[in-house]
Amino acid sequence: MDTKPAIAALAALAQESRLATYRLLVQAGPAGMPATRIAEALGLPPSSLSFHLKELAHAGLAAARQDGRFIIYSANYETMNALLGFLTDNCCGGNPCSPSAAGTPE
């Protein structure tokens, strides 16, 4: 992942409702969720949720598909993994990092 798409993804996640929406989509798995269930689960008005989903989709973090009269949203795991790779590229100066070492104060 290049810097500009990473910035777009991070900017999309840098808002409480969008972050909660994205985390819910990740938990839902590849099957995704209908917009109505997302709105109910997060207590968001449909118009607000629509705006947040558009921002996530624009950043490549979410995708939408039509299923009858419903729109199903799902997390784009490829973009998520690319963002994680971008953030951890050259982690620890190229040396292997261990989770236990990260939380150990020196």
From TrEMBL:
<dbReference type="InterPro" id="IPR011991">
    <property type="entry name" value="ArsR-like_HTH"/>
</dbReference>
<feature type="domain" description="HTH arsR-type">
    <location>
        <begin position="1"/>
        <end position="95"/>
    </location>
</feature>
<dbReference type="InterPro" id="IPR051011">
    <property type="entry name" value="Metal_resp_trans_reg"/>
</dbReference>
<dbReference type="Pfam" id="PF12840">
    <property type="entry name" value="HTH_20"/>
</dbReference>
<dbReference type="InterPro" id="IPR036388">
    <property type="entry name" value="WH-like_DNA-bd_sf"/>
</dbReference>
<keyword id="KW-0805">Transcription regulation</keyword>
<protein>
    <submittedName>
        <fullName>Metalloregulator ArsR/SmtB family transcription factor</fullName>
    </submittedName>
</protein>
<dbReference type="InterPro" id="IPR001845">
    <property type="entry name" value="HTH_ArsR_DNA-bd_dom"/>
</dbReference>
<dbReference type="InterPro" id="IPR036390">
    <property type="entry name" value="WH_DNA-bd_sf"/>
</dbReference>
<keyword id="KW-0238">DNA-binding</keyword>
<keyword id="KW-0804">Transcription</keyword>
